[in-house]
Automatic annotation (TrEMBL):
InterPro entries listed in its UniProt record: AB_hydrolase_fold (IPR029058), DNA-binding_regulatory (IPR052920), Hydrolase_4 (IPR022742), TPR-like_helical_dom_sf (IPR011990), TPR_rpt (IPR019734)
Alphabetical list of Pfam families matching this protein: Hydrolase_4 (PF12146), TPR_1 (PF00515), TPR_16 (PF13432), TPR_8 (PF13181)
Region annotation Disordered: where it falls in the sequence: 1-25, 361-390, 766-811
Organism (species): Chrysophaeum taylorii
Keywords linked to the UniProt accession: TPR repeat
Biased composition regions of type Polar residues, renumbered to the chain: 361-371, 766-792
Designated name of the protein: Serine aminopeptidase S33 domain-containing protein
Amino acid sequence: MGGSASKGGETEEAPAPETEPETSQFWSIVPRQYDELVRAIIRPPRADYNVARLGPRRFNFCSRTFVRNDSVLVNTRGLALRCSHWQPHGVDRVAQKLPCVVFLHGNSSSRLEALNQLPVCLGMGMTLFAFDFAGSGKSEGKYVSLGWWEKEDLRVIIEHLREGGTTSSIALWGRSMGAVTALLYQIYDKPPPPPPVRNECCPVDALVLDSPFSDFCKLAQELVSRGQQQANVVMLPSFVTRLVLSLIGGTIRSVANFDVNDLNPIAHVRQCAKPALFVCARYDDFVGPHHVSALYEKYGGPKDIVHEDGDHNTARSIDTQLAAAAFLRRVLNVPSSWTLIPTNPKVATLYLQIPWEPYNRSRTNSHSEPTTPRGKRSGKNNASEPGESRETMKKALYYCNRGNALEEEGNVDAAIRAYRAAIAFEDSFSDAHYNLGIALKNKGELDDAIREYKRTIELKSDHADAYNNLGVALEEQGRVEAAITEYTKAIDFEPDHAEARCNLADLLQSLGRIDDAISHYRKALSARPNDSDAWNNLGVALEASGSIDDAIAAYTKAVDIFPSHWDAQANLAEALHVNGDLKTAATVYRVILDHDPRDAQTAASLGNVLHALGQVDDALSAYEIAVKNDPSDAVTHNNMGTVLQAKGDSARAADAYRSAIEHDASYAMAYFNLGVNLQSSGLLVEAIDAYRNATRLKPSYSDALNNLGYALQSTGDYAGAIDAYRQALVANPNFDSARLNLQQALSKLADGGDIDASDVDVALVQNTSSSHPAKKTTTNSDIVEGPETTTMPPEKGESGGDDTEQSPSSVQEVTVEFDAEYVPVRINRSFSESADQEGAWSSTPTMASEKSGIIDSLSCWFNNITTTKR
C-alpha cells in the first residue's frame, strides 16, 4: 500500500499469551492503536510532489518523439483527478489506436510511481496513462479507501480512454492499493444480468497485480500483531483486535462511506476472467507473500506469477519488468514491429531508464530518478572509484537506489534516510550526496541541501548539475548574487546546460535585466530547441521588453511544441488580448477552458474579450462561470455588472456591484458603478451614498466627484454640488465636463441671488483646455468602448438667457461610460492598474484595464514573475 516497509521476514499473528493481562491493560492500548489505524486506512500521509518531476512534456526515446498530455477528469463524486498520458507524437505514432497501460499507484503515493513503468511500456509499443487517485497526490479529496472508491475513479479513466478514439486495448498495472483497485474493478464491474460470464463486459483486457492484499481485515490484524511484537508491548487477544477493527469499520463508514469488510478480493476472485500476472515480493513484510499466493491460487482467469527478490517498496528488477512487458504484449496483441527495445535483460538495462535523462543517473537498475524541479540527478555511477571496497560500495549503491525509489513514491523522509545510509557506507559517494541534496531541498531544508551540494562539488569539482542545483537553493534563500555565480559556474563547465541557462535567465529577468535574460533563453533553446518551457519564458521576457509580436511568436512556438502547455496557452491568449487580436484570443481562452472548465481567471478573461467584441450574452455566460468557480473575484462581479447594465437588467447589475463590494469593501470602482446604477434608477439618496464611498476610498476619483455633484444638484443641494465639481477639477484640471457643470451651478446660484459672482473661483471655472475632449479611462484593446461624451439638450422652454426655472438634469453634460476592470489571465505576472473616466455624470459604467500604466508597473511585474522553474 505504498508506505515505507520495515525490514525483516513475514511474521504470523502471535498467539494469545498463556496468562492474559488484565482487561484494563488491553483498553489502555486500544485508543492509540484505534486512532493510528483509522488514519492509516483513510488518511495516510499524502504524497506531495512538484509536477516538474513528471518530466518534460516532450522528449525523445529510442529515436522516437513522445509527449506527456496532462488532463483533469472528474469522478462520480465530483472530485478532480489529475492525470498524465505518455504517448508517441506525430509521425512517430504507428497507429491511430494504440494499446494503453493504466498504472494504479499504491497508498500514500502518486502517479510519479508510473515513471518506473514508463520505459518498458513505451519501449514495447504501448502508451502509459497514470493518475492520482482521489485523496492522493494532486487530486482532490480528503480520504482514500484502499481500492473501494478508487475503483470508481478507475471507471472514469477507462471510460475516458475508450471514448477518446485513440486506444485499442487497455491493461491495468497496479501496485499494492492499485493492484487491489484493479481486482475490485474487475469484480464489481457487473454487466447487465443475466451474463454468461461475469466479466465479459469489463472493458479491460489484462492485469498486472503487484503485491495486492487478499483481505484487508486479515491484513490489519496481522499488522497490529506484528506491531505489538516489534514494540514489545502487551499482546491483545484476537477478539480485542477484531472488536477494535469492527469499531474502526463503523467510524470509516460514517466518515468515508465505505465498509472495510468489502475490501476482500479473495472472496470473489474466482469470478475474475481476464488474464492476470501476479508479482510477489519474497521479502514483503507489509503485505505478506501469502496474500499474493492466495489470490493467485483462487484467481479464475488465465494467470501467471513472478517472484521478485525484494520487499514491498523496492524497485522491481529488469527481469520482472520484462516479464510483465512480455505478458502484456502477448495479451494485448502488440505487433513485434512496434517494439523499440531488446528483450535481452542485459541489453535492455541500457534502455529501461527515464527517457529524458538517459545519461544522468546514479542508480544501477531500471528505476531512474524523475526530473526534479530545477535540478537533475547526478551523472556518474561511482561504483568503480579507486580505493573503494567493492562490498561497501555495493551497499552504498543499494541504499542510494532505494532512496531513489522511495522519493519517486513521494516518501521523501524515507528517501533521506536511505541516502544517508549510503553515505554512511561510503562518504565519498558523490551521487549519494547529490541525491540527498535534492531530497532535502524538496523538503524545504535548504541549508542542509546546500551543504550536500557543496560536498558533491568537493568530491567532483566539475559537477555542473550540482552547481545548478546549488544556485536554485541559494536563490530560494534570497541570495541572488550567489545564485548567479553558481549558475554561471554550471554554464562554464557545461555551456549547453539548458537548465542552468534557463534558471539564470529566470533570475536575471526577475532583477529587471531583460536583455541578458533573453540572451540566455535563446542560448538554452539553441541547445534544446524543443523546450516548450524555455519558449514560454522567453515570451514573457520579450513581452516585458515591449516586443509583443516576438512574444506572441515565442508563446506560439511553445504551444506548437506541446499543445497542452497551459501556461503558454494562457500567456498566448493574454498577449493576443493585449495586442488587439481579440477573436484569436477568445479562441485560445476557449481551448484553455475546454481543458479546465473550472479555471475562473480564464473564464473572466474570455468574458472581457467577448464584451470588447460586443458579444454581451456570451460575455455574461463567461463571467457567470468565473464567479461560480471563484465567488470572491470582486473584479469579475463588477465587470458582470457592466454587462448586465448594458443589457438593461439594472436590478441584477446592482446585485453584481454589491457582490463586488461584499468581497472587497475597498473597491472604489464598484461603489462608483453602483452609484451610476442607482442614479439611473432615480434613487438619488442611495446613489449619493455610493459616490461618497467611492470618493472616500479614492479622493481623486474625478468621475465619482462629478457624478456626486450632479446627484446633489438634482436634489437641490447646489452648494454641495459646487464643492464636488471643484474637487473633481482639482483632481483633474482638464475635466471639461466638470468645469461646465460648475459654471452652470454657479450661474444658477448667482441667478437665484444665493451667491455673489465675485465669489466664483475663476481659476477653476475658466475653460483653458476646451480643445481637449473628455478622456476615456482606458485606451487599449481590453476595453469595451462606450458612446462618446454627449451634452444633454435643454429641456423645453430653456434657452440662453432665459430666466425660466430649469431642472438640474437639463443642464448637465453626460459621459456615457461605466467603470470596470479587465484583468486578462497572466500566468507569469500579476498586477492591475486603472485610470479614471472623465466627463459630467457618467451614466454608464466604464472598464479599466490591467494594462493601464504597464510601463510604470514593470517593477511590480518583476516582483511577481513566476516563470516555469526547473
